[in-house]
Amino acid sequence: MEDDIFLQLSNLLNDSPQTQTNKSSYSAEYGGAEDSTMFTHDSMLVPDIKPKKAGSGRRNIVIIDDDFSTLDLMKIYLQRDYDVEVFDNPKNAIFYLNGTVPDLIFIDCYLNVMSTKRILEIIRTYKELANTPIIYLAEPSEQAAIENKLPEGVCGIISRPVSRGNLQTILDKYIQTSDPEEGDPGVN
């Protein structure tokens, strides 16, 4: 059954649209109802699986970037206080986000493997991720060009190389310091 989910998610990330699927391939153990199906949204195949909030007691941050030095630096800055998941391939990030609701997502504004716009479209198909703040990672030269036209759901931009001070400003603004198990949404 797990193979069915990965096959269907692979189809989701594939550029060729599909509209039919095996309706019995999801089960409650994977977060979907027994009668879950795949549905299309703007010619995009989207699984009807409900992501769950991470249950470790720490805030969860996802970083999607094809620049390894940015991933490493941000993980070093964040891993002491947060659960940090880093992805150099956005397709792997989509698989992860299919089952987890992070408190904050950082994403490179220009990814090579898959367009950032497409990833944002996929993320926003999940109601559970609709209120998750998304922050663009951008070079200073890119920041001026995109600052006034951020896509829906993107809350801000942080320049690379990421400084500890700029990162802390973002964290203070978008992640509350109270216990994540208390049920707050994690957004100010």
Secondary-structure map:
Layout: H1 2-13, E1 38-41, E2 44-47, E3 52-53, E4 60-64, H2 68-78, E5 83-87, H3 90-97, E6 100-101, E7 104-108, H4 116-123, E8 134-138, H5 140-146, E9 154-159, H6 164-174
Parallel strand pairs: 3-6, 4-5, 4-7, 7-8, 8-9
Antiparallel strand pairs: 1-2
Helix pairs in contact: 3-4
What does this structure look like?
By secondary structure, this protein is of the alpha/beta class. The protein has helices spanning 2-13, 68-78, 90-97, 116-123, 140-146, 164-174; strands at residues 38-41, 44-47, 52-53, 60-64, 83-87, 100-101, 104-108, 134-138, 154-159. It folds into two domains: 2-47, no CATH class; 52-181, 3-Layer(aba) Sandwich (Rossmann fold). Helices cover 30% and strands 20% of the residues. The strands form three sheets. A five-stranded parallel β-sheet has the order 5-4-7-8-9. It has a two-stranded antiparallel ribbon with strand order 1-2. The chain has a two-stranded parallel ribbon with strand order 3-6. The longest helix is centred in the N-terminal third of the chain and has 12 residues, at 2-13.
Total domains: 2
CATH superfamily of the largest domain: Response regulator
Task: Order the strands across the largest sheet as they lie in space.
Answer: 5-4-7-8-9
CATH topology annotation of the largest domain: Rossmann fold
Helix content: 25-40%
Spans of at least 5 consecutive residues with low confidence: 15-49, 183-188
Number of strands: 9
Order of helices and strands: HEEEEHEHEEHEHEH
Q: Class of the largest domain, according to the CATH hierarchy?
A: Alpha Beta
Choose one word for the global shape. globular
Mean pLDDT: 75
How many helices? The count is 6
